[in-house]
Amino acid sequence: MHGSISRELTELEALLGEETRPGTLRPGGRTAQVRAAVLQAAGDALAEQGFAHLDLAEIARRAGVGKTTVYRRWGSVPGLVADLLMDMAEQSLPRARTGSLLGDLKANSRLVQRTLTDPRQGMLFKAVIAAAVCDARTAEALHRFYDARITEWAPCVQEAVDRGELPTGTDPREVIRAVSAPLYYRLLASGDPLDEAAADQAAEAATAAARSGAYITP
Amino acid sequence: MHGSISRELTELEALLGEETRPGTLRPGGRTAQVRAAVLQAAGDALAEQGFAHLDLAEIARRAGVGKTTVYRRWGSVPGLVADLLMDMAEQSLPRARTGSLLGDLKANSRLVQRTLTDPRQGMLFKAVIAAAVCDARTAEALHRFYDARITEWAPCVQEAVDRGELPTGTDPREVIRAVSAPLYYRLLASGDPLDEAAADQAAEAATAAARSGAYITP
Predict the structure, then answer these.
(1) Cβ contact (<8 Å) for B181 and A177?
(2) CATH assignment of A2-77, given 3.40.50.720, 1.10.10.60, 3.30.420.40, 2.40.160.210?
(3) The pTM is what?
(4) What ipTM goes with this model?
C-alpha cells in the first residue's frame, strides 16, 4: 500500500519538478526515487523489527541503494525515521468535506482507525511512539507529524463554527485531537478493541463535547 | 512517594497476614519487605534507564536483596515489571465520591495528570508502554493495570446513571477510558501540554459526551 503511494508521489514529484519541495531534496527524479525506496525499506524494517534493530546499512541493502548514499543523506536512524514521518504526513489523505461536523469527524476517526489497525502501519506507529519515549529527535518528529495532521483537519471544525454548528471560540485543534485520543489509548494503553464502532464513538463523543462548549479556549 | 506507600502496604500486609493475598507471596513480613524493596528498585531503574537496560542482578543489588531470590521469585524482567504494575494498581488511590459526575471525573483526570507528569511515574509509564509494544507479556500486564483502574472508577459513572445524571445504558467503563485518553494522547503522541487545564477539559468533555448518550452501549 505504502509502496504504491510512494510511487504515486514519485510520479507527482516528477511532474511538478522538485523545486516545489525545497530543503532536503536535490533536484532530479532519481533523488526522489531513492528517497521513496529508502523510506519504503525503513518503514518495512520498522514494522517488522521495531526501532531498536534498525540498521542503515541493512535498509540500504533492502532499498537497493548504496550504503554511503543513505549515510550521507540521512546520517542516523533517528534522522531517517524523522524523514519517514514527514513523508507519511505529506502522503496522508486530505481532510474530508462532507458538509457536517459529525460526517467529517467520522471520516477522520475511521482513517485513524484503519491506519492503526493496518498490520504494517499499526506496527510502524507503535515502533515510532516507543522509540520517541527515549529519543528526543524522534519525539520531535512525531510531534511534527501530529501537528501537520491536526492542521490538515482543523478547518473541518472551523467551518462547523462558521456554519453555527459549534459555539464561537471552539478550538478546532482540540476537537481533532479529541477524535484521535481514544483510538491511541486503545492501541497503546488499554488494549481494548480498535474497531469501526470505536472510531464512530470517538467522532460522536468529540462532536457532543464540542457542541457543549468543552473545547472553547478560555 | 512510592516508598512510603510501599511501607504502608507492608504494614497492612503484616496486620492482615499474607494469607489474604494468595499466589506469588509466601507467608511472613520479610517476604513483603523484599517484594517492596525489589519493586521500588525496579521502578527506579525503569524511570531512570527504561526497559531495555533493566537487569535483574542490578535491581537485586539496588534493593539490597540476594540475586538468587530475585531470579527465583520473578524469573525475568517482564515477570518483574508485571508484578510492579500489579503493585501499582493495588496501591493507586481509591475512586472519588464527590456526589457529582463532573466532580468525580475531575478527581480522576487530575490523578492521571499528576501521575503522568510526576518525573518518576511519568517515565515509568512511558517505559512500560514502550516495552509493551514488543513484549506481549508486558502488554498483558499493562492491560490488566488499566482494567483494574477502570474497574475501580466505573462506579462513579454507574452512580451518575442511577442518580439520573446520565442516560440509562451508558457504559461506565467507556466514560472512564474517555477521561484518560486525551492525557495519554498528549503524553505519547502529540506532545501537547499535559497540565491541569488539559485534565479538567478531559473530564468536562467526557461528561458532556456521556450526557449526550455517546457512550450508550448498542
Answers:
(1) no
(2) 1.10.10.60
(3) 0.85
(4) 0.84
